[in-house]
Structure formats: structure tokens, C-alpha cells
Amino acid sequence: MADPARSISSAARFGLTESRAEQALRAAGLWGDVGPQAEYEVILTALSRSPDPDLALRGLDRIRESDLDAWPELRDALVADRRLRGRLVAVLGGSSALSDFLAARRGEWRRLAGDGTPVDGYNAALYAAVGADAQTDGQGPVATLRGAEAVRALKFAYRGLLLEIAADDLGHVVEPGLPAAVYDVIAGRLSDLAEAALRAALAVAWEENGAAPVQERARLAVIAMGKCGGHELNYVSDVDVVFAGEGDSSLATRVATAMMRVASEACFEVDAGLRPEGRNGALVRTLDGHSAYYKRWAKTWEFQALLKARFVAGDAGLGATYLDTVRPMVWNAADRENFVPEVQAMRRRVEEHVPSELLDRELKLGRGGLRDVEFAVQLLQLVHGRTDEALRLGSTVDALAALGAGGYVGRTDAAELGESYRFLRTLEHRLQLQRLRRTHLFPADSETADLRWLARATGIGPERGRSAAQVLQADFKRHGNRIRRLHEKLFYRPLLEAVSRVPTDALRLTAQEARARLAALGYTSPQGALQHIKALTEGVSRRAAIQMAILPVLLDLLGKTPDPDGGLLAYRKVSEALSGTPWYLRVLRDEGAVAERLATLLGTSKLVPDLVVRAPEVLRLLAEPKELAVRDPAEVATSLRNAVNRHGYLGNAVTAARSLRRHELLRVACADLLGFMDVMSVCSALSSVWSAVLQAAIAAVDRAEAAAAGGRQAAVAVIGMGRLGGAELGYGSDADVLFVCEPAPGVSDSDAVRYASRVAQAVRKLLGSPSQDPPLQVDVDLRPEGRQGPIVRTLESYRAYYAQWGEIWETQALLRARPVAGDEELGARFIELIDPIRYPEGGLDATQVREIRRIKARVDTERLPRGADPTTHTKLGRGGLADIEWTIQLVQLRHAHACPSLRTTSTVDALANAAAAGLIDPDDARALREAWLLVTRVRNAATLVRGKQTDQVPTHGRELAAVVSALREPLSEDPGEFLDAYRRTTRRARAIVEHIFYD
Fold this sequence. Notes:
By secondary structure, the chain is mainly α.
């Protein structure tokens, strides 16, 4: 008598959990008195690997019961033939529907023992089932069976071939040594089988309508759409078709109707809803009828559906003519107005119809589902396939690979999206195969048994302490999130809509037509532009392919800038310089905002292109305005200091400082030109960058000098003057500074000064050495005694000089003094020293006021460059920066001793505080502030446009237009009107200056 406990334990070892398991095993002869028969353990091991061991065992038992005579043969074959064992057991545990088929059809298991039916034999097999001659030419053969008999024969033949495909698909799960069939192959075989089924059903339909498909009576072509047309069908799916007919339309319609009925009853649902006018339209249309409809009435989604159209049955000549008729319309669909937004809206509508509780479980229609991939791929195909025939593919995975190979999608994105798509399609196949029912719903978290079955059917096992079901859930979420991320990146790519707006004809112009179009876009030298385009796109490299996708949009974008020719030349130079930068073109292609903003920058500024070549990483920031415009000055200073400190060699340290300054200068310039920073933020940011560079440079030089001298002999502080002190620097401004030192304990003043002088001179020399970057000039001309005086003084030397020899202009210069680098404590004591000097007790006497006015008048007459227009010179012109700054500085010198709010280095703050204290009329203060801000903005814009420091406003031509564009002011579309407005503003400021400054 067998031990029940031992038997149950032995059964559990093979994953068999049902109480009936032992009974079934005994009946099959696989079980002895105390456990499994040794010679049959390979069968039990295969059962244990099955997606559902109990289901597989029940299926095996049902096959045995249906044909007891053949059971010993099957049992022995399962032991001897690993391929049969793996394929049969996998099917039995993976599909209850196919298990039913095997139990009902004796001997069908033998299909799995041999090599199976080759794909090119599907037609012959199904034709033979309905009694049709596979060799018939023309529109296909006519069957000899009809009605229920034909349906039954076709159903069993189709199901048998489906069994073979499923066995190949699942066999490796049970027997790991068997080859694993990839998704692409399985989907292709299912499509070929469906195509053969449609042809066999059509043969039955001709027989049922009592007529051979003679060309004189009627011609009928069956066009597959959707997944069948794309050669990527599921196990259970509607097969979408469209019919084209010629001749006897009544007969053609009856045959088409019969074909749909036979195929639907025997194999799968056949849906003709994608035909013109949908279910309300004629089932069969002539070629002229199709052509007229698509030309006049078809909606965007109908052209998207035609993307996968493929002839599958009937009259091959008619099918080819149909495709030749509609395909040109497909590849012109992207020219339709609002094409891209319509496709995007359609995807949103599809998603909205999914119940919210199922949205994250819907493999097909949900977020991160199959439709996300398909819509993105199809949209890219329709837009770029207008000119690139390599993209004209029906299969989603093939089209995605072509998009990646052609540079329209990043290689990594294409590979990841393809991998995730195949994963979801594999899950879809497994779920449908289970009961041969159409389903796209991933099991809920609570459905543990279903999750376990699906994981095993997919070949997913436990790992790292997680069950197979948990691994499956994690993979499903990971792939879904990846698909959604890439879908939103590709499907809503701004560049995609911009490309679609370029007419197809404009993408295929002859050289002469291209020159005319470029001239129309605003290029003054179309021939030169063509040469740049040729240089960027020649060859068959991936880089050239991406450029071909980007340039149509970029040319339009550059055409809207003040200097399209200069912008295209700059783009070519940047592209050639960054040809070895792997992410450059990828960012332009994938981030539409980057391409648009870069075009604006290149077509407006000569400074930006030079900086982009040497600081390309800033291009990444163009996609995120916040990252471009908002950066903490303290963070900049810390980054720069850390970068410098990593280098022991002084030259390398200063090079690092220059590099970060270049990065920040470009970042600020881009944010400024694109309107993401106001003028005060720009000036503050530029000043903080200069301060950080000085701080890092002086620290590095000080370390080097201290090491050479055997110790630090003096503390050194850098005092910002002028615009640096007022945090009002422009793009090309020098750094006006004073150097102050204090001896270290035990060091004489003379030794300390010599040490500090070496530090100061080294800083000036290193920063001011020639380079490709904008100049870094450290100007010390505001020091005591000017150019004749020592570069560095001790604190006491400054005290003595200002007390005995200081002149009123030096007092005025000290109004903007502010510590910016070096020893902070020494800098603070310098400010304590000069405060009584720059804010003199009692203000100024009449003699001092006259002297300041005399100096200002001399500046007005002598410092303005020869030939400069005083009405448009931003610094020394009438109502310019010098006028406004000298005016408020005179007010500060006269009243700051009694009005502490005037003790500021900022021009704008001083104006506001003077008005608040009643020292300047509020309206006058507002007018001066408005003029100062405008002139500062214009000065910055002119520097960006010309690529070098300039104080003269351009008065005509493209430079003036570029300055107006850079200002982003809605003053007027006419640059001349802007110039008039500028002169009015500065003229009013000059009148106020004469009133206040000259009393």
C-alpha cells in the first residue's frame, strides 16, 4: 500500500497541486506505488516547468482518454523526443483552448513531433482543407466545399497550424534547450497564417456564389489593414480589411460578404470598418471610388490606417493598382493643416475611453501601452517618410528600427522602445493564447495565480528574493513607464510639428527652386546658403541624415531672425566644431525648443556662436528656461573655486577659471537674448561671475606665491570699482579694481607690498593673456596716483593718501567701491576706512561741486570718440550712462552723510532712494531709471550682436534689427521707430541731468 503523504509530497515536487494529480498520473502509467516511475521523470519534470503544471497534466490525461490506443506511443515519444515533450507540455500548460483542441482531435499531437508546416506551406494546407487548387492563377482558386462543411474544415486546419506556432512560441519555456522564437517571427507567422485563411475563405466564397473568379465578370482584391497589414498580428485579433473591386459590383459584394462570414466563423473576426465612410459605406468600391474618397473626404486617421495597407488575397493586379493609387496620398497626409495636432488629439481620445481603474493595466490602450508606441512611430513615419522611403514600412518594430537607423530617433531610444514594445506584445500573446480570446488586460495585483501563470508562460523566474510574479510586475511597470516617457518625448516633440509644416514640395526642391525658396525666406545669399546646406547634409552618415531632418525647420526658423545668412553660417561652424560631440544633434532633434532657441541665438548674435563652440554643454540648458536663467551666484562661485582648487599647476587653474566663466557668460547671454532674464539680473550675474573668477584666481596665485616665498607674507583683498563694484557689469566690461594688502605678522610693509604686487600682477597677466574667450582685463587705473602709482598699497598707505592727496574724482570713484575677492576681513576694514571719505561730513562745498561739473564737462567734450553720434552713444552720449551715473553720484556726495539710504553702490537703488528722500523729483527719478535701464540693455544687446564690446548703437541695417530683436521690446516692428524712441528717452534724461547736475 502506498504512503499517501509520501505520494503527495512527491507530486508537489513536480508542481502538481490538485488532489486528482496522483490519480491521473497512475492512470497514465507515470506513477508507481510510492511515487513517479523513474523512466517517466523527464515527463514530470517537463510538467513542473509548464506555465500551469496542473493544467498541463489535465490536458495530457484528456489526450490519453480520447485515444487510449495511441497513449503508449505518445508516452514513449514524450520520453524520447525532447522537442515534442517541450512543445506539447508547454501548449497544454499555456493554453486551455489548444488543450481542448488536442483532446477533441485525435492524433493532432503528432503535428508537434516533426518539423511542422513551413510558412510557405500555409496556403497549400488551408486550400487543401477546403478543396481548392493552390496552383490556380488569376484571382485565386475556387473551393469544392461550401457552407458549414467548409467552415468546419477550415477551422480545424487553421487551429492545427495555430497549434504549431504556439508550440514553437512556448516550447523553450519547458525545455530550455529548444530555440526561443522571437516576437517578430511569431507575429509574422500569425500574419502569414491569417493571410492564408483569408485566401481559403475567399475560395469558399467564390464557390458559394456559383461563379469562378473570371476577370470578365468581377475582380476583387482584399487589402489587409492594421496588424495583419503590418505583418504583426496577435494570436486573437480582428483582421481589418478593405475591398477593392471592378466589374460586377453586386457579385463582388456578395463574395466579399461571404468571405468575411466564412473567415469569421472558422478563424477570426474580419472587420471592414476601416473602409471609406466606415460601416455606412459600400463594402466594395472601385479604384476610382477609393481615389475620389481619399482625395476629398478622408480624415487624418484614415491615412494613418492606410500606412499598413497590404494586398493579401484576390486579384493581385487590382491589389497592386489600389496600393499605387492610395500610397502617394498617405505620404502627403502630413501636409494637411494641423496634421500633427490631430494625430495627437486622436491618441488622447483613445486613452480617455479606457476606464480610469484599468488605465495602468491596459496593455493596448492604456498609459505606456502598445498604442503609445504605435502612434509615436506612425506619426514619425508620416512626417519624415514623405522624403525618406526607407521609413515606408508596415511593421512597427521594423519602422522603429528604420527611424533609429535614419537618425530620426536616438539609437538608445529606438532600442529601448523596441524592447519594451516586444515585451508588451509577448505578454499580450500569452494572455490571448491562454483561452484564445481577445484580451489586453494585465492581471491585477490581487490575481496572484494569474500573475504566476503569466510569468512562467513568459519565461520569467524568481530572482533576488522576489517571486516570479513580483519580477513580472516590476518588469511590466518598468517597460510601461519607459514607453510613456519615450512616447511623450517623441510624440509631442515640437520639432515634429515644425517639420510637418514644411510642405513636402519644399523638401524636394531642385537647386533653382531651393534658391528661390531661400530668397523668399529672407536669405540674401541663397547660393551661399545652399553651399552650407550641402556641406551639412552630404554623404550617407547618420549625422547627415539627422541634419536632413533638422534643416528644413531650422532654415525656416533662421529665416525669421535678423540675419539668416549669418545664422546659417554660424550653425554650420557650430555643427562642424561639435561633430565629435555625440549628443549635439540628438538634442536638436529630440528637443524642439533647443533647435528653435538656438536658431534665434545664432541669427541674432555673433558672440554666442563662438562661445557655443567652446562651451557646448550650455546647449542642453536651452530646453529648460529655469536652469538657463536661475543660478545662485554663491553656487557659481563655489563651483569655480572647486574647479580651480583641483589644479596644482597655476596655468591649469586659471584655465579652469576661464572655462567656467565662459560657461556662465554663455548661459547668461542665452537667457538674456531669449528673454528669460531682465537687465538687472544680467548685470548682477555677470558681476558675480567676474567676482568669482577674481576670487578663484587670486586664491590660486596666492597659494603659488606663498609656496615659492616659504609662507604667506600678506593678506590681499580686491576691491571692485566702477561697474564691478556696483554689480552693473556688461558683457565686455573690464574689471575696475583696487588691490589692498596687509603684512603678515613679522613681515615689513615693503616686503608685504612686494609680495602682494607679485600676486596682483600675476592675476592680471594670467587673466588678461590672449585667448579665444572675451577679454578678461583687470583695470587698476582708479588707484591712487592713477597709472603712476603702485598697483598695491597697504591699508595705512591708502589712509594716508586719501587724507593728504585724494582728489574729488577719486572720492567720487570710491562711491562704487565694494570688496569682491581676497581677504574678506581686510576688505571690510577698507570699506570702514573709505566710508568717511566717500560720504563726507557736511557734503561738498561749492568748490568741489564746481570741480565735479568741470570734470564732467571735460569728459563730455574730450572723451567722446571721434565721429561718434552723441545721440546714440550709450556711455558718453547725451542722456547716456555717464550722464545718469554722474548725476546720482553728485547727489550721493552731497547728501549721503545725512541720508544713509544713499550709501549704496547701485545706480538704480540710489535713484530710488534719492526720490524717496525727496532729493529728486519722483518723476525725474523714474525717467532717469527708465533711461539707465534702456541704455544698459541696448549696450548689452549691441555687444551680443557685434560679438565685441561696443558703446555705439547701430543706426541702420541688420545690426540695428538684431539689436531690436535682442531687446525683445514690443516698441515697433520698424527698427527706425525704435531708434526714435531711444533718442526720445535719452533726450528727456539729458534734460533732467542738466536740471539736477548743473542746477
